[in-house]
Specification:
single chain; alpha/beta
């Protein structure tokens, strides 16, 4: 399965312009036979606290409809983030997977980032989510979730890969890389980290920090470019787990 990780630098709080760029990326991904294109957290807005302006009705999301149409048109899976606005005025930070026009999964970030006051504008979700594509099962997480290993271990036996979409800043890039590797070692699966790049609202984000780590802890070679592509497969995970059956000893 070919996974595409978008090197994404969104224009701050400008959904329309970001949609134009997103469409270009989806077209390129489809031409390169990518099965699943992944975009960072809060894809079309940046990591904004402006829920009243940037939030969408959870049952009537313009962002979801936009990516559904692209997914159907180009016959591709797409993972993206958006902000919902709830009845109590709080937002929720979502990670959604659509495939060929159908919503496959919608995860709401469990751990708002209190250090950046995200918890003052966003409420946390409660449920872990995963989805199937091809013969593989993927777990879904957002940014700060990466610092909480228990929610990864809770899905380890059911997943062949886990995806973290993020807006993770340059000054903590080494944490990002180390934590992705740690979650992989603990759970013996592919870890896929999709981070934004560039600058947003005065915060600098690293270039080329999106990565895929295999079940043996090795960072996979990625074709460079706007869409960083890597080939993953279920048998690599199952073979590694058979040869080093750590998860059989996991007690939850």
């Amino acid at each position: 399965m070919i996974i595409g990780l978008a090197e994404w630098n969104p224009i701050w709080e400008d959904k329309q312009k970001n949609m134009l760029y997103a469409q270009e990326l989806v077209e390129k991904a489809a031409r390169n036979r990518v099965d699943l294109l992944l975009l960072p957290e809060t894809t079309l807005t940046g990591f904004t606290m402006n829920v009243s302006k940037m939030g969408e009705e959870s049952g009537d999301s313009k962002t979801i409809r936009f990516f559904q149409k692209l997914s159907e048109k180009y016959g591709i899976g797409i993972g993206f983030g958006y902000i919902s606005k709830e009845e109590n005025g709080m937002g929720e930070n979502h990670f959604v997977i659509v495939n060929k026009g159908t919503i496959q999964a919608d995860y709401s970030k469990i751990h708002p980032f209190t250090y950046a006051k995200e918890n003052e504008f966003y409420q946390g979700g409660h449920d872990l989510k995963r989805f199937d594509m091809g013969d593989m099962t993927f777990g879904m997480y957002i940014c700060y979730d990466l610092r909480f290993p228990s929610i990864f271990t809770a899905q380890a036996k059911k997943c062949h890969a886990m995806i973290v979409i993020a807006n993770w800043p340059s000054k903590r890039e080494e944490h990002w890389r180390t934590l992705l590797r740690a979650r992989e070692i603990e759970n013996q699966c592919y870890m896929i980290g999709v981070n934004r790049a560039g600058e947003g609202n005065g915060i600098t984000y690293p270039n080329h920090s999106s990565l895929v780590i295999d079940p043996d802890g090795q960072e996979l070679s990625i074709f460079p470019g706007e869409i960083r592509m890597v080939d993953i497969n279920k048998e690599t995970v199952m073979s590694y787990r058979r040869n080093f059956p750590v998860l059989e000893d996991l007690k939850l």
